[in-house]
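Office hours follow-up: a student asked to see two folded examples consecutively, so here they are.
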Amino acid sequence: MTIGVPPGAHAQAAPDGGSPRVLGPLEQESVNDALSSLGVSIDPAPQGKPVGRIQVVSQSVFSRRDGPFQWLNLFHRTTRAVVLERELLLGPGDPYDEALIAESTRRIQSPPPFTIAGQQLFQPDLTSVVAILPVVSPSPDRVDLLLVTRDLWSLRSNAEFEFQQNALTLFQLSLSENNLFGWRKSASARFGFDQGAYKYGPSYVDPNIRGTRLTLWASATLHASRETGRYEGDDEMVSLHRPLYALSSRWGAGVDVIHQNVVPRVFQGNGLRLVDLAATPDPERIPYAYRRRSVTVDASVVRSFGKTVVHRATLGYLLDQRRSEVLSDFPGDAAVARLFLDEWAPNTERRSGPYVGYEAFTPRYAVLRDLGTFDLREHRQVGFLLRLRLSDSLPALGADFRASSVGATAGFAHAPGGGYVSGTAGASARLRHGDGRFIDQTAGLAVYAATPLVGGLIRIVAAVEVDGKRADTSHTPFVLGGASAPRGYQIGELNGAGALRGYQVGEFIGTIAFAGHIEVRTAARAVGSQRIGALAFYDIGHAARTLSELAPRHDVGVGFRWLIPQVNTSIVRIDWAVPLQDGVVTRMGMPGRFSAGFQQVF
């Protein structure tokens, strides 16, 4: 868990590790190949010199070190030089600036996420190696730039999965071209499933419409019941933005339109969770599933200013209409259905009104390796972050009732000597004017710490997060258990550290939850071009209705990590965990639980 990077916030490099000229082994190999092929050398003193030529070397996925796999490059279109050069924040004639070089490196390697209706959606990974270096120019008073990238395999079946308790609980397969014709655009046809439904449909991501700074994300998904195979809903999304793509950007704007007609389900282990009604004396054991229909329109404009500290002010309008219904096979009459929806499903409500937001942060970054991934650069924000949001839902604009909302998030991060520590706290609430009640109260605290690499061999990483809700009209409790929490019901309003690997998926549920982790991770070890590593871990956590009901559960285990740099920047993970206490379903001790997926658990 880290402090969230503000959308488009790519600024000056941190003085304690953000230099774009500090390279890892994979990057150094690519740079050496490029320098040799062009017959150029690094300029040791470029600062302040005018930029002359810009030379772009877009390397194929498989290099000469990958032996016979090089023939696969015939089926891959490398990123066009003009596309990469367009992402640079300085050009011929501009004075060389190390901070802008670092910002450009971040922009190409880790494009800013799309922020759609307040949620961040990350673009597909396109490159594993990005290095922008000053090289000696034929003109002694100038400096040339060398931009070196190595593409990821883009024409492929992108897969994401979670395998837990002898069952495939999450699977997503995307037949896509993530770098369409070398333009860094993505078109895909997706198929996948979670524990409740099959999902399939197309999507298109365009980060530079016709070479402009306009961005587009469009998708449509059909849903079919995993139990019956029959169609049960759909969702569609269109997002058009002109984001704040760099620190020098002053204005941004966008509009998001989202439609949903879906069936949320909450599971416990591999079975649908059964819930009881607090308002009745007898246990009903009703399957936790319902239909949700919603339409969201979010339009906003943002103004950015400041340099040492960046300030951003947002003005927007939000229309959000949601309706919850029981399913056709609901096991109860109309009165029971009403009680179930009131307790376990989001309230039916229409919100409509303006909102304002404010954000301030220090635009400094540190470069780390062997933390979230292996060997490749990881850009982490350091300094402080503050976000505030005020909104008003007005009957005059179509809202069901007037309600004023306030939310705040504050955080701080530091990267001492190759380590990284961060803390984030947040809270929000809505005031319903009709009866003066505060509803939708949320609060959370998250702390993360990673030591520097000890002896170049291991790194100790720890995290803890606590989240709580009161008077929650969305009725979406925290669900904890498994290698990651079920999507849409995860612990971690702040950062999502929701794993408790020794226990079944969704084993614990409540309006207050906490999770903590300690891992001892090895540094990456090279096996050819691949990178592998291992870890030992300890998890603690629980979720319950009240603070007094929290009863911590613990597990310990070991794991394996594997990076395939030609295919993905995320590691493959395999973990084995042994629970140390009984859970609701899980029993302590051997044989333990295996889980597998992509990315670190936290």
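And the second, which I mentioned at the end of office hours:
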Amino acid sequence: MSIITGSLGDSWQALPESLRRLLRLGFAGRIHLCEIAAYCLDSEDVSLAPIGLDAALTAFGENPLGGGLARELLATPALVPLLPRESGAVLSSLVRHWAAPSNIEYFQRLLARRDFPKIKRFIETNAARDAENAYWREQALTFGLIDADPDWVEAQLDLPGTAVPEPCLNAARAQVARFRGHHVDAARMYQETGPLFGPAFAAIQAGHCLLASGDADTASLLFLDALRRTPWNTSLILRVHDLVSGADRETHALPGSCAVLLYTWNKAEELAATLDSLLGSELEDCALVVLDNGSTDRTPEVLAEWLPRFADRLGADNVHCETLPVNIGAPAARNWLMNMDMVRQRDFVCYLDDDVELPADWLPRLGAAVHCHPDAGVYGCRVVDHANPALIQHADQHLLVPEDASFDLSRTEPNPFRLSNLHVQTLDFGAFDVLRSCASVTGCCHLFRTEILLESGPFALHLSPSQYDDMEHDLRLAESGRFAVYQGHLAVRHRKRSGVASRISPSEEGNALGNKYKMQTMHSRVDLLAAAAREQELLECDLSRRIRLLDDLISA
């Protein structure tokens, strides 16, 4: 079997279904890419070797100072003979100069507390003491970018005495330049890496950088050339399709009226910033309803200041504030709001968190998603960290259900399933700027058709205070055949840190685990497996449609 054939469509159809299931999720994220590589390299089909090699080197390219990853790659017997000479030499050099300290308990405690000033001081001290150890350069790159401090990262990368291979340092510097917004410089740096990180990695990353700089024409040429060399790269297929079709620039007014719903509790400063961005956005035929969950800070004063401004713009009858004596929690707040008469009369309902910053075109961007997928159950967006937009908190999440698991209430995971999380395995390099269907989107910017929202039932009160109630609601919609749609061309900045940038207390973690247990008991194996199978069919149809368009373009 030959993988690289005359067309993208032929190449895709030649792949085994079990590999396509992995690739449909995307071609990004260290853990996911290593899973793809392992599948291909463990396969008896030698024609899958180019895909396995590309996945492994792409993971390295995303983590160019990752000595632990480099060691794993060099310890993979099926991979080593496939490595280009330069790639193998750089991996070997990195491994020789990378060593995790024997005792990192204190460092791990700092990481658990997310005490970034102390984390950086600790890294500085050890990097100066052990200058040749690439481990500390890796930590500097990782946690310096998480803390949005590129100056500090560059200072650590440029310390004298480092034995880190220069190609790895250059790839790390490209990430820093990209973070700074120096996209043309970053594109040049990536292109200078050549085939070190795979046959198309340099072109793809340079293309994303040039696209961010406004040079869509050159980016398109780089992307199309990369597709010819790596037709299995589904993230690239998705992104190039949206670029050449114009989906990444499309906006549409919602086909009807909308109620924008905010529930808040003791976040006066964040709420004011959210209302400021909301007032500055496009709000055609909208109403605003705010539920104050018994706030005891300055929230009432903030609402008294901002709501009259919305009344002037939207009309007094289209602005309402409901004040409760206590905090009833997010699920109950969502249910209260969706059942208000002035909300039920609207065609669409959009829930917003009280700590987000919205771009001016956020609603027309969601309108484009509605225009493209009019029958979806819910619409969401790419949510990024407010302090560091290079960190994606939420993107398209896909349902993964192990077929060999059973329902067992005695386990901490009584009914195992999960949602894909490629977006937290890497920085935002552009691979998630796509518009497509998925199983779940985040609830901090959640758009529904009102009719579908009311039909689908309330958010689960027993999943309070907030974990998993929006995910569980999305799963119910997916099981009914109404999948979510992810509008990755809309980025909403979220002030609450999550993922690698967050700090979660033991009580919060315990509550989350308890709610995860409860959520799993609410869904049957049969329904989950059926929904996962339907989603795979949906993703396959979507990819096939995009591939046909790109094949026509490439052959023209």
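Two things to take away from it. The chain has 24 helices and twelve strands. The mean pLDDT is 92.
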